[in-house]
Structure formats: structure tokens, C-alpha cells
Structure prediction request, 308 residues.
Amino acid sequence: MAVLGLVINPTAGKGKAESRGAKIASIFKERGHEVVDLSAPDLIGAHASARQAVVDGVDALIVAGGDGMTHLGVNIVADTSLPLGLIPLGTGNDVARILGLPLHDLDRAITMIEEGLETGPRVIDAVRVSDTSHSMSEWYAGVLSAGFDAAVNATANKLTWPRGESVYVRALFKELAHYKPYGFEIDIDGELAWQSAAALVAVANGSDIGGGMRIAPDAALDDGLLDVVIAGPISTATLLTVFPRVYRGTHVSHPAVTVLRGREVTVKPRPDLGLTPPDAHTDGERVGPLPLSCCCVPGALRVLAGKQ
Prediction:
């Protein structure tokens, strides 16, 4: 029997979070586990409750929801020995998809968590991201988006329809209406690697963003490196040609797209080269304005997702 701390997305639709939480807890209890309810009325409260549970001692932290809940869980357990279990029930589910977890399937997701508890967690990298002006930092598991991809993410987070992954397509066309290239400077492992106008910059530990867009198709969660995908400088017409290819990952072969790799990546705004980039997002959540520094920490995360 394991003692499991369970966090359900508190921002789910009226009544949905409570009913889902009760169902998930019931399944775990029926299978012989002890469940510590970490429910809270908002994400700040859920974060505080989860941190306290770690201090009090649980065998694993389980989060249910989308990439926002994954982001919360990663920031609780990264660089610790506590494993993280994911029950992907959200819109994007990008980190869960990269890990090969079943989407919107409670029984199968819970079964995979139990298998991970029995055989041991999968050890993957995580990324520590920080504002270059101070020492405070947070973590992400998938992708940092800066530029057009971040603008699409921010718009998608505000839309209430359509439901599911199609919301990113609607957000994409809304942002295209006023797209202009942004100005960037990128340092990799302490050296200037790139500076120019660009549509987007993605600093990827995993491959997917936006509900299955394969922004960094060759990124691996456990290679100790970050894939830096840069598109630009490109016009709106070229962006319309390149962006649909992101769903298959074939955009990286386009001559306007550059892929670089390194362990430490700093992305800076260069308003003299283009528009000031929008606030960056990590795992679908706003992290803040550039400049930001990303450091891949090998083996920083233990996920109950089976061995691969």
C-alpha cells in the first residue's frame, strides 16, 4: 500500500473537480492505497497544500488535470526523490503525451501509476528556468515557448471555445492577424549562438506543445540537453507555410528553421531587431518576460510512467 498525495485541478468546471477527485480517490482506495486529499479552492492553495504534504511525507504526488497541473507537480517534486504521477485530463496534456501516458482514461492512467510504484519511476531531465536578474527560479518538464508560439499559448488560455486541442488552432489564426517578427538573442553554454528577428524560439526538453504540435521532434527527455528551435526571420506568408508542419515535426527541415543544442540556454529580447517578444510560457503556463535562463538538470524528475 502506498500513501498518495492527490491534487485535482481546482479550476475545472463547476462540480467537475470535486466529482473527479472523489472518483480518482475511490479507485485508489479500492486498490488498497491511502489517499491524502490535497484539495484547495485555487492553484495557489493547491500548491501550498501539495508542498505541505511533501513535508509531512507521502510516497508519491499524484496530479490530475492538464499541463498546468503537471507544471504544479513538477515544481513540487523536481530535484527531490519523490515520484510524480500524472492523470492527464486537460486540453493540451503535452508532457503526458510525450511520456506515452493514456489521455482521458482514469483506469489506465491509475494502472500505469501503480506499475510505476511497483517497478520504480522513470527518471527524466527537468529544466530550471530563472530571470537573469535574480536567483528565483521554477521548473518545467516540456518546452519553454517564446515568440509567436507563446502568444498563441496565451491567447488559447483565454478562449472558452472550442473545447479540446482545436482551441490552439483558433488561437493561431487570431495571432496571425497581427504577427510581426520578434527580436531575439540566444546564448548557449555561455556563448553567443544566435541573434536576429524570428517568429519563435522554443527551448525544449520534450517534443510537444499546444496539444500535440511537435515543435522539437528530436528532443529527448533524458539526454541531458535542450533542443533550441528557432524559426526566422520569416514573413507572415512563410509562417503560414511552416507552422502547419509543426504538427508532423517536419518544419525542422525548412531552411528558415534552425535547431541548436546545449545544456544552458539564455533567451534575451532584442527590440532593436524586431518586436519585443511576449511573455514566455513553460508547459503551457506563463513564466514571465525575457530575458530567461534555462538549465537542463539531468535526472531531476521521477515520473510514475513506466520504463522506456
Q: What stands out?
A: Helices lie at 16-30, 43-56, 67-77, 94-98, 106-119, 148-158, 166-176, 236-242.
